[in-house]
Write a structure and sequence with these properties.
Elements lengths: L1 H21 L28 H6 L1
Amino acid sequence: MRRSRIRRLACAAALALGAALLSPAVPSAAAADPYQVLVFSKTAGFRHDSIPAGIAA
């Protein structure tokens, strides 16, 4: 009885391992393409405190 239980567990583990190795790998998500952003920061006198932080970002 105990021997057949061990054999079943070994077969189940072997099948699970085989299925994991044979299944196609999921492709990783592609990295986002680099992009460019135009920041226009000319002001008409008043300059808000957050403008330099926005330009740096």
